Amino acid sequence: MRPAAPALATLALVAFLELGAWRSGVPTHHAVRALLPLAWLAAPLAAQALLAIAARLGVSAAVIGVAAIGLVAACGRFTAPPGKGLDDRAEALNIGASARAEGAPSLRLAACAFEHFAAMAAYGAPERVVVLPQRVGGPCPERLPPEARAPSAELR
Questions:
Q1: pLDDT at residue 99 tops 70
Q2: 3-class DSSP state for residue 34?
Q3: Considering the domain boundaries, does residue 151 fall inside one?
Q4: Per 3-state DSSP, what percentage of the chain is helix, strand, and coil (rounded to 5)?
Q5: How far apart are CA 3 and CA 5, in angstroms?
Q6: Claim to verify: residue 32 and residue 66 sit in the same structural domain
Q7: Are residues 20 and 58 in the same domain?
Q8: Last residue of a domain, one of 24, 42, 76
Q9: pLDDT of res. 101
């Protein structure tokens, strides 16, 4: 396979996405999702590169493939995919219920995955909930003070 065509398509896609982001328009509400096609374009190039490395080293392509799969699997262990936060939503429910019991006029939450939805439901007025990004090292979900604002250097 000649890498020029997929590489050119990849560069064109990145240029298109950057132009859209620069003009304040992204194709999805999660801008990173738009980069998924790059993985599909990069996969055959990576496979070709691995085969070339295997041939150069005189190693079986299967050995290189197993090593690559092991590396990808090891990297996946260091991330926390969405929805893998609190299995028990009791803490999130307690945050929302306590805010409702206090008569709080609004609720500000720092959330990392989907736990904040339980707090919003327990609060009973999701339209009065502001969700901000999780603070580095902070609990998830976390009730923030009413004066908490948009992300700063403290927030990720």
A1: yes
A2: helix
A3: no
A4: 55, 10, 35
A5: 6
A6: yes
A7: yes
A8: 76
A9: 93
| Residue 118, domain member (yes or no) | yes
Task: Count up the domains in the chain and report the number.
Answer: 2
Whether 84 is in a domain gets the answer no
Following DSSP, what letter does each residue of 75-116 receive, concatenated? HHTT---TT-S-SSTHHHHHHHHHHHHHT-S-EEEEESSSHH
Task: Quote the distance between the C-alpha of residue 56 and its chain's center.
Answer: 36
Residue 108 belongs to what domain range? 90-144
Instruction: Assess whether the previous peptide bond of 6 is cis (omega < 30° from 0).
Output: no
Mean pLDDT computed over every residue of the chain = 76
- pLDDT > 80? residue 137: no
Q: What confidence tier does 25 reach under pLDDT thresholds 50, 70, 90?
A: low
What separation in angstroms does the CA of 104 have from each of 41, 101, 129, 140? 50, 8, 10, 20
How many residues would you count in the chain? 156
Residue among 135, 116, 140, 134 nearest 126 (CA): 116
